[in-house]
Amino acid sequence: MKTIFIYLAIIFLFFSCSKPDLRVFEGDNVFLSDLKGKWIIFNYWADWCPPCIKEIPELNNLQRNYSNKLKVFLINFDMLEGEELNQQLKKFNVKVDSLLSDPSTIYKWVIPENLPVTFIINKNGVLEYTLVGPQTEEEIISLLSL
Protein backbone atom coordinates (compact mmCIF):
# COMPACT_ATOMS: atom_id res chain seq x y z
CA MET A 1 0.00 0.00 0.00
CA LYS A 2 2.83 2.38 0.86
CA THR A 3 4.45 1.66 -2.53
CA ILE A 4 1.24 2.55 -4.38
CA PHE A 5 1.05 5.83 -2.49
CA ILE A 6 4.65 6.67 -3.43
CA TYR A 7 3.97 5.91 -7.11
CA LEU A 8 0.85 8.07 -7.08
CA ALA A 9 2.75 10.91 -5.42
CA ILE A 10 5.50 10.69 -8.07
CA ILE A 11 2.95 10.71 -10.89
CA PHE A 12 1.16 13.69 -9.33
CA LEU A 13 4.42 15.62 -8.97
CA PHE A 14 5.41 14.81 -12.55
CA PHE A 15 2.18 16.16 -14.00
CA SER A 16 1.90 19.15 -11.69
CA CYS A 17 5.45 20.24 -12.52
CA SER A 18 5.18 19.96 -16.29
CA LYS A 19 5.97 23.17 -18.07
CA PRO A 20 3.65 24.86 -20.56
CA ASP A 21 4.05 24.15 -24.28
CA LEU A 22 3.95 27.80 -25.36
CA ARG A 23 5.50 30.83 -23.67
CA VAL A 24 3.35 33.91 -24.12
CA PHE A 25 4.72 37.45 -23.92
CA GLU A 26 3.10 39.24 -20.98
CA GLY A 27 0.34 36.65 -20.72
CA ASP A 28 -0.48 33.24 -19.36
CA ASN A 29 1.66 30.47 -20.82
CA VAL A 30 -0.32 27.81 -22.65
CA PHE A 31 -0.67 24.06 -22.52
CA LEU A 32 -1.75 22.77 -25.93
CA SER A 33 -4.07 20.30 -24.20
CA ASP A 34 -6.09 23.32 -22.99
CA LEU A 35 -6.76 24.24 -26.65
CA LYS A 36 -8.04 20.80 -27.67
CA GLY A 37 -11.21 21.20 -29.70
CA LYS A 38 -10.19 24.63 -31.06
CA TRP A 39 -8.41 25.64 -34.23
CA ILE A 40 -4.98 27.10 -33.46
CA ILE A 41 -3.58 29.76 -35.78
CA PHE A 42 0.14 30.55 -35.69
CA ASN A 43 1.18 33.57 -37.72
CA TYR A 44 4.80 34.61 -38.34
CA TRP A 45 5.26 38.34 -38.86
CA ALA A 46 7.88 41.10 -38.80
CA ASP A 47 7.81 44.89 -38.66
CA TRP A 48 9.73 45.11 -41.96
CA CYS A 49 7.01 43.13 -43.76
CA PRO A 50 4.19 45.43 -45.02
CA PRO A 51 1.79 42.52 -45.78
CA CYS A 52 2.33 41.27 -42.21
CA ILE A 53 1.35 44.63 -40.78
CA LYS A 54 -1.72 44.78 -43.01
CA GLU A 55 -2.76 41.34 -41.74
CA ILE A 56 -2.61 42.17 -38.00
CA PRO A 57 -6.05 43.85 -37.78
CA GLU A 58 -7.57 40.86 -39.58
CA LEU A 59 -6.06 38.47 -37.04
CA ASN A 60 -7.14 40.71 -34.15
CA ASN A 61 -10.72 40.62 -35.47
CA LEU A 62 -10.61 36.87 -36.06
CA GLN A 63 -9.57 36.23 -32.45
CA ARG A 64 -12.12 38.68 -31.06
CA ASN A 65 -15.03 37.36 -33.15
CA TYR A 66 -14.30 33.62 -32.93
CA SER A 67 -12.52 33.15 -29.59
CA ASN A 68 -14.85 30.27 -28.71
CA LYS A 69 -13.71 28.32 -31.81
CA LEU A 70 -10.05 29.23 -32.28
CA LYS A 71 -6.93 30.76 -30.78
CA VAL A 72 -4.60 33.08 -32.70
CA PHE A 73 -0.93 33.50 -31.82
CA LEU A 74 1.67 35.75 -33.45
CA ILE A 75 5.34 34.81 -33.61
CA ASN A 76 7.79 37.61 -34.32
CA PHE A 77 10.08 36.34 -37.08
CA ASP A 78 13.07 38.17 -35.57
CA MET A 79 12.32 36.54 -32.18
CA LEU A 80 12.25 39.88 -30.40
CA GLU A 81 11.61 39.90 -26.68
CA GLY A 82 11.20 42.38 -23.86
CA GLU A 83 10.82 46.08 -24.55
CA GLU A 84 11.65 45.74 -28.26
CA LEU A 85 8.76 43.33 -28.79
CA ASN A 86 6.48 45.35 -26.54
CA GLN A 87 7.09 48.51 -28.60
CA GLN A 88 6.27 46.73 -31.85
CA LEU A 89 3.11 45.14 -30.44
CA LYS A 90 1.91 48.56 -29.30
CA LYS A 91 2.95 50.28 -32.54
CA PHE A 92 0.94 47.82 -34.66
CA ASN A 93 -1.94 47.53 -32.18
CA VAL A 94 -1.56 43.77 -31.73
CA LYS A 95 -4.41 42.38 -29.61
CA VAL A 96 -3.65 38.65 -29.90
CA ASP A 97 -1.08 36.76 -27.85
CA SER A 98 2.51 36.95 -29.03
CA LEU A 99 4.69 33.90 -28.45
CA LEU A 100 8.20 33.86 -27.10
CA SER A 101 8.56 30.17 -27.90
CA ASP A 102 8.52 28.92 -31.47
CA PRO A 103 5.84 26.28 -32.15
CA SER A 104 7.98 24.86 -34.99
CA THR A 105 9.82 22.86 -32.31
CA ILE A 106 6.54 21.15 -31.39
CA TYR A 107 5.01 20.69 -34.84
CA LYS A 108 8.29 20.11 -36.72
CA TRP A 109 7.60 22.55 -39.56
CA VAL A 110 10.34 24.51 -41.26
CA ILE A 111 10.53 28.11 -40.13
CA PRO A 112 9.40 30.18 -43.11
CA GLU A 113 11.74 32.24 -45.26
CA ASN A 114 8.96 34.40 -46.70
CA LEU A 115 6.42 36.34 -44.71
CA PRO A 116 3.71 36.39 -43.73
CA VAL A 117 3.00 32.72 -43.24
CA THR A 118 0.23 31.15 -41.21
CA PHE A 119 0.08 27.61 -39.90
CA ILE A 120 -3.34 26.31 -38.88
CA ILE A 121 -3.67 23.40 -36.48
CA ASN A 122 -6.98 21.54 -36.55
CA LYS A 123 -9.16 20.72 -33.55
CA ASN A 124 -7.30 17.42 -33.09
CA GLY A 125 -3.91 19.10 -32.83
CA VAL A 126 -2.67 18.26 -36.34
CA LEU A 127 -1.27 20.73 -38.89
CA GLU A 128 -4.04 21.21 -41.44
CA TYR A 129 -3.07 24.28 -43.49
CA THR A 130 0.03 26.29 -44.34
CA LEU A 131 -0.92 29.65 -45.84
CA VAL A 132 1.72 31.85 -47.45
CA GLY A 133 0.95 35.52 -47.93
CA PRO A 134 -1.45 37.84 -46.16
CA GLN A 135 -4.77 36.42 -45.01
CA THR A 136 -8.05 38.11 -44.23
CA GLU A 137 -10.51 37.24 -41.50
CA GLU A 138 -13.05 36.33 -44.19
CA GLU A 139 -10.64 33.96 -45.97
CA ILE A 140 -9.80 32.10 -42.78
CA ILE A 141 -13.45 31.90 -41.72
CA SER A 142 -14.29 30.40 -45.10
CA LEU A 143 -11.37 27.97 -45.01
CA LEU A 144 -12.33 26.70 -41.55
CA SER A 145 -16.08 26.76 -42.24
CA LEU A 146 -16.79 28.88 -39.17
Task: Record the SSE blueprint.
Elements: H1 2-16, E1 39-45, H2 50-65, E2 70-76, H3 82-91, E3 97-99, H4 104-107, E4 117-121, E5 127-132, H5 137-144
Parallel strand pairs: 1-2, 2-3
Antiparallel strand pairs: 1-4, 4-5
Helix pairs in contact: 2-5
Tell me what the structure shows.
- The chain is globular.
- Helix 2 packs across helix 5.
- The chain contains five helices and five strands; from the N terminus they run αβαβαβαββα.
- It is an alpha/beta fold and 146 residues long.
- The chain starts with a helix and ends with a helix.
- The longest helix has 16 residues.
- It has one domain: Glutaredoxin.
- The mean pLDDT is 91.
